Amino acid sequence: MSDGAALSALMSSRPIRVLHVMEATIGGTKRHLLDLVESIDKDAIQIEIASPRVRSDPHGDTSFFSDMTALGVVVHEIPMVRSIRPIADLRTTLALARLIRRRRHQVVHTHSTKAGLVGRLAAFACSGTRTVHTPHGFYFLNFSRLVVRSVLRWQERVLGWITSRVIVLSKGERTVAAGVISLRKLRYIPNTFDSFDPVSRAEARDRLGLPEDAGVVVTTARFTAQKAPFDVAETFALVHRLHPETRFVWMNEGELKDAVEARLRTLGVEAATIRPGYLSDARELLTAADVYVHLARWEGAPYSVMEAMTAGVPVVAARAVGTEDLIEDGVTGILVDQGDVSAAASAVARLLTDLGEARTLSRNARKAIVVHHNRDAMARATEQVYRELVLG
Q1: What pLDDT, on a 0 to 100 scale, did the predictor assign at position 300?
Q2: Cβ distance 274 to 264 under 8 Å?
Q3: CA–CA separation, 381 and 376 (whole Å)
Q4: DSSP structure class, residue 214
Q5: Which of 44, 58, 207, 370 falls 20 to 30 Å from 256 in CA-CA distance?
Q6: CA nearest 35: which of 187, 170, 192?
Q7: Rounded to whole angstroms, how far apart are CA atoms 254 and 234?
Q8: Is the dihedral of CA 310, 303, 36, 287 positive or negative?
Q9: In angstroms, rounded to a whole number, what is the distance separating the alpha carbons of residues 227 and 98?
């Protein structure tokens, strides 16, 4: 055996050392990494994580560290803030670079915008380290102003030059990525989730304090601009005018919570809206709903929509990157234009009264999710990305 072949055989027999860098340790990004950690081949891939212990704005979701350590993962606490702070960001980048060199990580896999910035710069400073980035929704889609969006697209393009691979979670996200990242670097690996057992409709309504016979509309959207919470509030109010007996449940937290609650009061729908805050078991309670509402402006591939579809709840959603990949309008859910709260309310009201259509949509949605979103397939595809970078 030649020296090169012997070295290749030795490398392939050892686990690939991968460092995942996370700042957004909540919501779908957290869920994605949990699914990957649980499903990855641990004999082939050795995962470690670098993240803050608690995100600077966790909105009640503070279990990331404990969830990961419970799975046996080594988690390195690295201070990281969501907003742009040049001095703090430089310190974070240097701390990550020191960690990468000390632990000799072969691949650095970053998630979302901020970790994607500091993590990729840190990996670039470490000779021989490969980088993988998962955007979980490109942040520049949040901005309508051309100048701001162009600057952020340029930033992503520059970072793409020092990135080995970019993993996108939906076909829509792949289309967006193709405008800023080299096609040879892109890998499409559909977002997936672990199976779960929702409680019965009666139990879910009992736990949420809902009457058994009321029409119920649910969302788990965070009170943050990306999730369009004011559109959700307007939709709730319009549905309430059409069906005053309807109850609404909003399970989450966020920096816009006070402003959204004020809007609910102004719209006269506050008393009809239950707001239990962030619930770690929210997806188990989705069966309380007759309709699920998701009006986010952009996504990677939203877990909340997949979970509602799995729970057998028909979904009304705004057209957005990521969301449109999950829902076929009129077949597995209903899509409306972004900002069109009248259309959203009309769709919700229709599903509250047309139980036949609601059942058909939910049945089709459940079948589509089971067929196209397999957690083990996601893990195997991600492992292959690591192998092609390290082993060739």
Answers
A1: 81
A2: no
A3: 9
A4: S
A5: 207
A6: 192
A7: 18
A8: negative
A9: 36
Name all domains of the chain by residue range, CATH numbers in brackets: 3-192+374-390 (3.40.50.2000), 201-372 (3.40.50.2000)
Spatial contact of 238 and 246, defined as CB atoms under 8 Å apart: no
What Rg, from alpha-carbon coordinates, does the chain have? 22
- Checking if the pLDDT of 137 tops 70, the result is yes
3-state class of 13 per DSSP?
helix
- Amino acid (1-letter code) at residue 290: D
pLDDT per position as a tens digit, 70-95: 999 999 999 998 888 999 999 999 99
Question: Residue 2: which residues within 8 A CB-CB, separation 6 or more?
Answer: none
Could you list the beta-strand ranges (E) of the chain: 16-22, 45-51, 74-77, 107-111, 130-134, 165-168, 186-188, 216-219, 247-250, 273-274, 291-294, 315-318, 334-336
Q: What average pLDDT does this structure show over 279-293?
A: 94
Q: What would the pLDDT profile of 317-365 be if each residue is shown by its tens digit?
A: 999 988 998 999 999 999 999 999 999 999 999 999 999 999 999 999 9
In which element (H, E) is residue 378 found?
helix 375-390
Outline where DSSP puts E strands in 220-283: 247-250, 273-274
CB 16 within 8 A of CB 46: yes
Question: 115-129, 136-150, 250-264: which has the minimum mean pLDDT?
Answer: 136-150
State which amino acid sits at residue 7.
L
Q: Give pLDDT tens digits for 140-161.
A: 676 556 666 677 788 889 999 9
Query: Residue type at 361?
Result: L
Q: How far apart are CA 124 and CA 118, in angstroms?
A: 10
